[in-house]
Design a protein that fits this description.
The protein is an alpha/beta fold and 287 residues long. It has 2 domains: 2-105 and 246-276, Rossmann fold; 107-243, Rossmann fold. It contains 10 helices and 12 strands. Strands 2-1-3-5-6-4 form a 6-stranded mixed β-sheet, sandwiched between helices. Helix 1 packs across helix 10, helix 4 packs across helix 5 (134-142) and helix 4 (104-117) packs across helix 9 (244-260).
């Protein structure tokens, strides 16, 4: 069976999604093509034109990445529970007359968290970064036993918007200032980085290493490199680790399940994927 897939987003030339989906196609006997569709600009018109062309060309579905995840919801006919919860989508199924949507960043974080920490509750969490994948991670944490979310972002309005959305769903979120950051960091159960800081292009850590210690766990959305300074500091402080690779891999598995209608099991794919991209760590569990 043919699956014609794509990724819509800006600056996506280095995406590993095509390899992952083609590999899953080989495992589950689907003929998969996966194209990168970069409109080149961040505009409603550019996204709409790209989505329209995919539908006209008979694509089965597409993934959606920065900066279109929130905008894409406006074009969805049938959002699932994850999309309604988060208010954004990264996976569109286009093969029907109506566009169906899910958010596998949300489900991928939940699956990745449980893979690393089992049923251990997330507890009170400090999240740095309210944009991008942060929205999906924020809501996902409450399905992993989070009781309170403290949000810090240099874009204060973005942090306030996310906190309001979380509170509107009956959860508990609070925006904190830079002055409050050290005290809150030392008081919570979990530390979460949802900023780009730590990526090869933007090295460093958004939280001073001296503030790690006494928490239970940490998550870094950055996974290139896998061993970020944030994760190194968390490991050295004895925290359990959930990596950005956990989220990336599980969201891809969940997206393939949506596109193919076949429940994908990631075990075989994981071994092949980490070998292809030489992914390894001396202290982060890859599972």
């Amino acid at each position: 069976m043919k699956l014609k897939l794509a990724l819509i987003g800006n600056s996506i030339s280095q995406s590993r999604a095509p390899f992952l989906h083609k590999m899953l196609g080989e495992i589950y006997d689907f003929d998969v093509s996966y194209d990168l569709k970069d409109p080149g600009i961040n505009s409603r018109e550019a996204f709409e034109a790209t989505l329209k062309s995919l539908r006209e060309e008979g694509y089965t579905g597409c993934n959606v990445t920065f900066p279109f995840k929130s905008l894409a919801v406006e074009y969805v006919d049938e959002p699932d529970e994850a999309v309604r919860e988060v208010g954004a989508t990264n996976t569109l199924y286009l093969a029907d007359d109506k566009i169906r949507a899910t958010n596998t960043d949300y489900t991928g974080f939940i699956h990745g968290y449980h893979a690393q920490r089992g049923d251990a509750p997330a507890g009170e969490v400090l999240m740095i970064g309210a944009g991008g994948v942060g929205r999906a991670v924020a809501f996902g944490m409450f399905h992993c036993g989070a009781t309170k979310l403290y949000i810090f972002d240099l874009n204060v309005e973005g942090a306030k918007s996310l906190a309001a959305a979380v509170n509107a769903k009956g959860y508990s979120a609070e925006v904190i200032s830079a002055d409050e950051l050290p005290t809150i960091a030392k008081s919570v159960n979990g530390l979460v980085n949802c900023t780009p800081v730590g990526h090869y292009a933007t090295p460093g850590t958004p939280l001073d290493p001296s503030l790690f210690g006494g928490q239970d766990w940490a998550f870094d959305a950055v996974y290139v490199p896998l061993e970020t300074e944030f994760m190194k500091a968390a490991h050295e402080a004895g925290l359990e680790l959930v990596s950005g690779f956990d989220l990336f891999f599980h969201q891809g598995i969940d997206a393939f399940t949506t596109f193919s209608g076949t429940k994908a099991d990631g075990h075989e794919a994981l071994g092949r994927f980490v070998k292809e991209f030489d992914i390894s760590s001396t202290f982060i569990k890859i599972q």
